Amino acid sequence: MYFDSFNALLTMDGHGAFVWSAYLITTLVIAAILVAPGRRRKKFLRQLAGELKRSRGGPNSSKEEA
Amino acid sequence: MWSFFHKLGSPPWLYSISGVILRWLLPITLVALAVGLAWSLLFTAPDFRQGNSYRIIYIHVPAAVVALAGYYVMAIAGAINLIWKMKMADVAMRSAASVGAALTFIALITGAIWGKPTWGTWWVWDARITSMLILLFLYLGVIALYEAFDNKEAAGKACAVLCLVGMVNIPIIYKSVDWWYSLHQPASIKFTGDSTIDTSMLYPLLLMIVSFYALFTCCLLMNMRAELLQRGARTSWVKKLALAGKSV
Amino acid sequence: MNPPGSLQFCARLLRRQLVLAVRRPIEIGNPLLFFAMVVALFPLGLGPAPDQLAGFAPGILWIIALLSNLLTSDAVFRSDFEDGSLEQLLLAPQPLFISVLAYIGAHWLITGLLLALVSPVFALMLNLPGSAVGTLVLTLLLGTGVLSLVGCIGAALTVGLKRGGMLISLLILPLYMPVLIFGSAAVKAAVTGVPAGPYLAILGAMLCLAIALAPLAIAAGLRISIDA
């Protein structure tokens, strides 16, 4: 560890704000791009399931395309 | 061998195989990123001249490298769609655009934040940052063109042409900006320090670069999965998946 | 009746485009007026101090040339697309690569060439030293050629879109940047007395590359837009 104390880790000889803001923004963006597609997929499947269940028994419910 | 390409053109096959890949790739990526970030923050020495802000290199450089590679992935995918009309390639191109734009954004922001303690200003028009900015414009242009078309098949082809034009231009743009910067800035301040990089700094950097590549692949596959489902909303395999209830 | 050869066809198309343009002189005058008015904007915004203006003049002149070119690029294929002539062009036996050069050539003759010839007047207004004016005209002649070629790529990709508008600017401005860098650098070199030859050579090389490759992209873009 190159830092003696937690305080030293936070301030990093005055550069702490820059390093931490860069790392935090990066982590946030990475988290966003990892989570967003999964949520989009699940949301779509949920909505499609709902639509299909609502239209079940209707005239078009047995039409399928490959 | 051709059956592999034939399978590649089948959305349900791609969907299931990407699910299998992600099951082990995603945890590995997360671990690699966590280890890399911790290593660079806590276990690497600060730079002699730049001090602790040098640590930003461990995110800026990997993000920039993968953002640039991502453009080529996008362009090649677009070309495959244009030449062989493989719709999966079109899906890959559109997904790569979003992920690449996000990574370029990270590279830009970290570059700007790095510039402040190093050179005193929030934004420095140096060669690399300016090239990154232009790369972001190129990515956003592709996304804008795709969204402007109503006919999505034409959108994919038009974006493929645009990506190829951009691909030819990227070396020209990079060299022009590099040369332009050297013209206006006689003092050669290299962004990444000395050309000979110490091994204690090299290994975490390499780990971060590899993790970012893995991150790009994961996000690309996940975006492709979502896109495949949305495009196949009327097909039986998607309907079956939706009704099955579990969203794996 | 024999169909005309490719070059003959191209020449006829070029003549047609020029005749059409000349029938609406205001459309030729518009970019030049734009150029003049934006030249006036810079002293208004930056202050009239002659040395300052002279220092920025190469860049200012080049940026305005770029923007004028951008404004006119959008309309290159639009009217022919709307009345169906473009579709006929795609069905013609002559290769699209050559036919497209006619559109680009006409565009350059109407915008780039005129801009380059008129630029000494505006260079004077911005206090550009006389020694650099010749270089300015040369760089504009070469550079606007590249700008026309690249601009038509954007036009071909967006011609079918209803809400094109700003989109073409987003697409082609990044591609314009290397031309801007070397064009203004050449003029700046001429101002300081350094030979501008190398920069002009690079601009020439860009022009050659653009002539060789841009028509391919434009032809592809036109086919995609029409099929859509």
Strand proportion of chain C, as a percent range, falls in under 5%
How many structural domains does the protein architecture of chain C include? 1
Oligomeric state, counting identical vs distinct chains: heterotrimer
Residue runs with pLDDT of under 50 for 5 or more positions of chain C:
none
- C-alpha-based Rg of chain C, rounded: 18 Å
Number of individual domains of chain B: 1
Largest interface: A-B, 37 and 48 residues
What fraction of the residues of chain B are assigned to beta strands by DSSP?
under 5%
The termini of chain B sit apart by: 29 Å
Major sheet attributes of chain B: none
The average pLDDT score of chain C comes to: 91
The structural class of chain C is mainly alpha
Shape of chain C: elongated
How far from one another are the termini of chain C?
33 Å
Order of helices and strands of chain C: HHHHHHHHH
Main beta sheet of chain C, described? Answer: none
- Quote the average pLDDT of chain B: 87
Structural notes for this entry:
The complex is a heterotrimer of chains A (66), B (248) and C (228). Chain A is built from 2 helices and no strands. In chain A, 68% of the residues lie in helices and 0% in strands. Chain A is an all-alpha fold. Chain A starts with 5 loop residues before the first helix and ends in a 12-residue tail after the last helix. Chain A has a domain at 23-54. With 248 residues, chain B is mainly α. Chain B has one domain. Chain C is mostly helical and 228 residues long. Chain C has one domain. Chain C has helices at 6-23, 25-46, 50-73, 78-83, 85-91, 96-125, 133-158, 167-192, 197-227. In chain C, α3 (50-73) packs parallel to α7 (133-158) and α8 (167-192) runs antiparallel to α9 (197-227). Chain C is elongated.
Topology:
The complex is a heterotrimer of chains A (66), B (248) and C (228).
Chain A: H1 6-11, H2 16-54
Chain B: H1 2-8, H2 11-42, H3 57-84, H4 87-119, H5 127-148, H6 152-184, H7 199-231, H8 236-244
Chain C: H1 6-23, H2 25-46, H3 50-73, H4 78-83, H5 85-91, H6 96-125, H7 133-158, H8 167-192, H9 197-227
Helix pairs in contact in C: 1-6, 2-3, 2-6, 3-6, 3-7, 3-8, 6-7, 6-9, 7-8, 7-9, 8-9
Task: Give a concise summary.
The complex is a heterotrimer of chains A (66), B (248) and C (228). By secondary structure, chain B is mostly helical. Chain B has helices spanning 2-8, 11-42, 57-84, 87-119, 127-148, 152-184, 199-231, 236-244.
